[in-house]
TrEMBL record:
InterPro entries xrefs: Ferric-bd
Organism superkingdom: Bacteria
One Pfam family here: SBP_bac_11
Name of the protein: Extracellular solute-binding protein
Keyword set, alphabetical order: Signal
Entries under SUPFAM superfamilies matching the protein: Periplasmic binding protein-like II
Length: 349
């Protein structure tokens, strides 16, 4: 699901979004195929700019493929963290000097907040018809361009496969005392997703149990991954794209598995911004990103496409083999204060 909630206002926004999804609310435009007039208008605009939190290597591949497919429209990008691209877009829109056309962030909270504030515009791409409706905003202001999973990682040299934690609950096993890495909810995206997951599965008492293991808190998944590889940590909560890359490309001494009690999914949505300088080129780009061709490029970076025709990269666990943890958006929002208060009390911060 989403990685974090930026503000109380964001939580309110997401509650409205969740209610609309549950009730089938919001009227949506019918999907239309890209017409020649839009393509010609896009060529007249000449370029399209993506503001994205994705890795530069992925954005290089996407823009290169788009430029080859649509001569006359040059795709460019600005890459930074989700909060940075969010803040940049807000500042540009407020100053009426918008440079970006599309925003792609690492959590649905940010994109929903932008929608609620009228900072996104709808576009009913014909490509959306292939997706499960839950992955496309009812108003067609965004769709989930890629997904990742929180998984369990462990040091391959110090933890045997037999002794490795198999479930989220196993992270509280005393044999990992002082050697478990968890994201700090005050700093890291994905932290509350994990907290909600274990709270839902095992109740508030789990956090007191986990506290006995003296978990180490980190500002992101990267530091956790790095410290598992060096052996400073034995186990931790990571992201599949980090562990897949470390294992399949770098041969690092790290292994990973999807929790037997369910793996939380993190959405990474994309949408067209209001006041975009190249609105027609933005539509062409959205079609491309949602198409099997664009989705296959996303998957080249160890993402999971939610397009049914696009398979994961070789070596990755098939999506159908992952037990996806049910993470109801409305409940996740409603329980946030309760869960985080419980964690702060148990962990002493």
């Amino acid at each position: 699901m989403h990685e974090h909630f930026k503000t109380e206002r964001s939580a309110t926004t997401l509650a409205a979004v969740a209610l609309a999804i549950a009730m089938g609310g919001y009227s949506s435009q019918p999907a239309l195929a890209m017409d020649e007039a839009t393509l010609e208008a896009a060529r007249q605009e000449g370029s399209v700019v993506i503001y994205s939190a994705s890795p530069s290597e992925l954005l290089d591949s996407l823009t290169k493929a788009f430029n080859a497919k649509y001569p006359g429209i040059t795709a460019e990008y600005y890459r930074a963290g989700s909060s940075q691209v969010y803040e940049r877009l807000i500042a540009e829109q407020d100053a009426n000097r918008v440079n970006g056309d599309i925003i792609h962030v690492s959590d649905v909270g940010t994109i929903a907040e932008l929608k609620e504030a009228g900072r996104l515009v709808p576009y009913a791409s014909s490509e959306y018809a292939a997706y499960d409706p839950q992955y496309v905003d009812p108003d067609k202001t965004w769709f989930v361009a890629r997904a990742h999973f929180l998984n369990i990682a462990y040091n391959a040299g110090q933890v045997s496969d037999a002794d490795a934690p198999k479930s989220l609950r196993d992270l509280a096993d005393p044999k990992f005392n002082g050697k478990v890495g968890i994201m700090d909810v005050r700093l890291a995206g994905g932290a509350y997703t994990w907290q909600y997951a274990v709270w839902k599965l095992y109740g508030p008492e789990f956090f007191a149990e986990m506290a006995k293991n003296e978990p180490k808190l980190f500002p992101g998944h990267g530091p956790i991954n790095d410290r598992i590889i060096t052996g400073e940590l034995l186990v931790g909560v990571s992201l599949n794209y980090m562990t897949d890359e470390a294992i399949l490309e770098k041969g690092a001494p790290i292994k990973a598995l999807f929790p037997t009690d369910g793996a939380p999914m993190i959405w990474s949505p994309v949408g067209i911004v209001a006041k975009a300088p190249h609105p027609n080129a933005a539509k062409v780009m959205m079609d491309f990103l949602a198409s099997p061709e664009g989705q296959q490029i996303f998957n080249s970076q160890y993402s999971y496409s939610l397009h049914p025709a696009v398979k994961p990269r070789e070596g990755m666990v098939p999506l159908s083999d992952i037990k996806v943890l049910d993470m109801p958006l409305a409940d996740m929002i409603a329980q946030q204060n309760t869960v985080q208060t419980t964690v702060r009390s148990a962990w002493g911060y």
